[in-house]
């Protein structure tokens, strides 16, 4: 059965600030993973993190920008696996930013999880995304916005 992770959150900062944290490698690495992202359609990039062999994950996430509409939408593929050329996760991440009430409403849709036999992986990533949106990313955005408006 295919499932999607879906979360939304509001940040008291304009879409331009949120966009920076989704598309600037150094800022994205502060809350997610080291990467070499460029918000240009067709750009292939990677996230790198600790391997989890028990989850058939070698620590590399292979991505490609599918759509990049500055300050509004970012879509990329997200593929990972054990490192032998097969992917146990072949999914798509969509970020939608909407300017609202002096801030930004952020929608995350991470689609394409096959939970047959891998509900733990889905549950782990679902909790991880939620925690990052509510925690570290929110803190970083608030701090940057406070510095820019001081």
Question: How would you sum up this structure, described in words?
Answer:
With 150 residues, the chain is of the alpha+beta class. The chain has one domain (2-149): 2-Layer Sandwich (Alpha-D-Glucose-1,6-Bisphosphate, Chain A, domain 4), CATH 3.30.530.20. 31% of the residues lie in helices and 38% in strands. It is built from four helices and six strands. The chain has helices at residues 15-23, 25-31, 119-134, 136-149, and strands at residues 2-11, 44-48, 60-69, 73-80, 89-100, 103-114. A six-stranded antiparallel β-sheet has the order 1-6-5-4-3-2, with helices on one face. Strand 5 (89-100) and strand 6 form a beta hairpin. Helix 1 crosses helix 2 and helix 3 (119-134) runs parallel beside helix 4. It is globular and about 50 Å long. The model has no long low-confidence stretch (mean pLDDT 95).
Q: How far apart are the first and last residues' alpha carbons, in Å?
A: 49 Å
CATH C-level? Alpha Beta
**How helix-rich are the residues, as a percent range?**
25-40%
Strand arrangement in the largest pleated sheet: 1-6-5-4-3-2
Number of strands: 6
Fraction of residues in β-strands: 35-45%
Tell me the structural class.
Answer: alpha+beta
CATH superfamily: START domain
Number of domains: 1
The overall average pLDDT, rounded, is 95
Radius of gyration, taken over Cα atoms and rounded to an integer in Å: 15 Å
Shape: globular
Largest sheet: 6 strands, antiparallel
How many H/I helices? 4
What's the order of the H and E elements? EHHEEEEEHH
**What name is given to the CATH topology?**
Alpha-D-Glucose-1,6-Bisphosphate, Chain A, domain 4
Q: Indicate the low-confidence ranges by residue numbers.
A: none
Provide the CATH architecture.
Answer: 2-Layer Sandwich
